[in-house]
Amino acid sequence: MTVACCRTFTLLLVVALLLNAVPLFAQQPILSPRDSSQVIISGKKISVNYGSPSMRGRKIMGELVPYNKWWRTGANEATAFVTEADLEVGGVLIPKGAYTLYTLPSETQWKLIINKQTGQWGTTYNPELDLMRIELNKKMLKSPIEKLAISLEKNGNGSGVLKIEWEQTSLSIPFKVKNKERRAN
After folding, report:
1. If you ran DSSP here, which 8-state letter would residue 65 be given?
2. How many whole angstroms separate alpha carbon 131 and alpha carbon 94?
3. What is the pLDDT of residue 106?
């Protein structure tokens, strides 16, 4: 009888401790929360969804984000890019659809990679599925950006710009919505 009581008490104690520990785990902040940006141009939505890591005192460019190696351009799940319209980026046509964004950073020049594989973890990359690689405009910022930010902005005349900013690096590339013109018969 005493052994059974001790076992029951021990079991109840363990259950109580576990139940009290669950809120501690639930209250931990997400280190790289999902974020998104979208823009409507010519009536068509273009969006990006990405994991937004923070600097948290780390050196980013050249270390956390290594040079001369593809980068997932975010954290955790791959960065999703969806367009309801055909786009022209750097003279290359991107058909409407869903894609993954990667980048190829270097100290002097970055390239944007638009890849046809979707839904994967960010560390999964198949270069055979690249739709395009194109140079990004790069400039240095005076003040550091703590959290990775990817934005889509409308420029007017059916065009916009994709921006990627983190630490003291700002990258951008303009794009244009391609309207399909109807021809009279």
Report:
1. B
2. 8
3. 96
